[in-house]
Amino acid sequence: MKISMWNIYARLKYDNIVAMIRDGSETIETARWIVSSFLNEKTVYVGEASVFFYRSNEGTVLVHRNDLLLIPNSDAEEVFNEVCSILEQFREWEKTLNALLESENALTKMLDCSDSIFENPIFVYAPDGKSLATSSHYPPEINWHWAEILKNNGLSEERMKILRDQSNLTRVFQDLTPTFHESKIGLTNYIHCSILANHYMAGHFVLFSMNKALSQEILPLCNILVSYISRYMERYYAKYSSTSHLGKIAISMLSNIDYDEEDLSLFLSSLKWESTDTYKIFAVRENVPQEPVMLNRMYIRLAETFVDSIVFCYKKQLIILENCTRDKKCWTTNNIWLHLSRRTTFVVSVRYFVVSKNVGNTMIRHVMN
């Protein structure tokens, strides 16, 4: 666990600290008392201010690389003990996060063990808006938006539309590192980061400023928490991915990757389909300039409707894989439009294909648009 001088500065309980932080790099691992001129770049050194400042009889100085904190009228030994406690708090936090990787249903526990670090409510939600975890220490009364999240177990479809249109959510979803955002609809400011698991968008991390103001020093700490959430989702990928196991197989087929005939046979037989059948693909994409917002919400709606087909997410699109030979309903583009939100613009395309065999391999052959 590595922290910066900003993290120490934010947690020292003194009102008169003089901060001279030039780099603020996250490279501090240990604390030592100043006893020589040799300074290790991974260590913050604590000592009496007179070591660095002539005639400064009372006070404490903290030094790390090009960063320095001066605390007038303080006892250096007491400050040293406080700095050691701060470092220990961060080490214990990461140790707990690492241990939770082995635990089931641990996302809420990760947020709760992080409360002393961030002191603000955190919300982790799936791409369709459903809550995956919320900080349990904060009541609904803290903020009306927090109350709405707890009541709806996430973001309602209507709220996601408002956020998309008024807060440019399609751009916000492009955050791959923790990023500050100012609210556009009267909410508190927040830090957002999209969560990737196995290179798929698995969810979103939001830290609200509902309890105290957000500061720059917590961005690297957010990044640590998000990385553990991402690792946890990868470990339990089947639970958090909107792409089903059948969808993964279909993706390999649609990507023109050679597929083992036995695996393909098992795949088709699980659906009571045959390799001689004709298939239809509907590709649904949201007509937005950047990241889709409502697409995963539509995934749930279409998956509930197309019960005899396979619906899965692939490259920012919803794919509906239908067996035209077996399914007598034979869905059309107009049928799909009826199940899409009228106030959200989607683009629907369709193509047909059949399964054909090469020597030793089974592949997909495109038939017509």
Give the helices and strands, then pairings:
Layout: H1 5-11, E1 18-21, E2 30-33, E3 43-48, E4 59-64, E5 67-72, H2 76-100, H3 107-113, H4 115-118, E6 122-125, E7 131-134, H5 144-152, H6 157-166, H7 169-172, E8 179-181, E9 190-197, E10 200-208, H8 219-235, H9 237-240, H10 245-254, H11 261-270, E11 278-286, H12 295-305, E12 310-314, E13 317-323, H13 333-338, E14 346-358, E15 361-368
Helix pairs in contact: 2-3, 2-8
Share of residues in strands: 25-35%
What is the average of the pLDDT values?
Answer: 80
Figure out the total of helices.
13
- Describe the main β-sheet briefly: 5 strands, mixed
Using the alpha-carbon principal axes, give the shape.
elongated
Helix content class: 25-40%
Q: What class would the helix/strand composition place it in? A: alpha+beta
Unreliable segments of 5+ consecutive residues: 356-369
Strand order of the largest sheet: 1-5-4-3-2
Task: Evaluate the radius of gyration.
Answer: 27 Å
From the N-terminal CA to the C-terminal CA, the straight-line distance is 54 Å
User: How many DSSP-defined strands?
Assistant: 15
Task: Summarize the helix and strand pattern as letters.
Answer: HEEEEEHHHEEHHHEEEHHHHEHEEHEE
Summarize the structure.
With 369 residues, the chain is α+β, with helices and mostly antiparallel strands. It contains 13 helices and 15 strands.
Please describe what this structure looks like:
This protein has 369 residues and is of the alpha+beta class. The protein is 34% helix and 26% strand. It contains 13 helices and 15 strands. It has helices at residues 5-11, 76-100, 107-113, 115-118, 144-152, 157-166, 169-172, 219-235, 237-240, 245-254, 261-270, 295-305, 333-338; strands at residues 18-21, 30-33, 43-48, 59-64, 67-72, 122-125, 131-134, 179-181, 190-197, 200-208, 278-286, 310-314, 317-323, 346-358, 361-368. Strands 1-5-4-3-2 form a 5-stranded mixed β-sheet, with helices on one face. It has a 5-stranded antiparallel β-sheet with strand order 7-6-10-9-8. It has a 5-stranded antiparallel β-sheet with strand order 12-13-11-14-15, with helices on both faces. A hairpin with a 2-residue loop joins strand 12 (310-314) and strand 13. Helix 2 runs parallel beside helix 8. The longest helix has 25 residues, at 76-100. It is elongated and about 90 Å long. Residues 356-369 have low confidence and may be disordered.
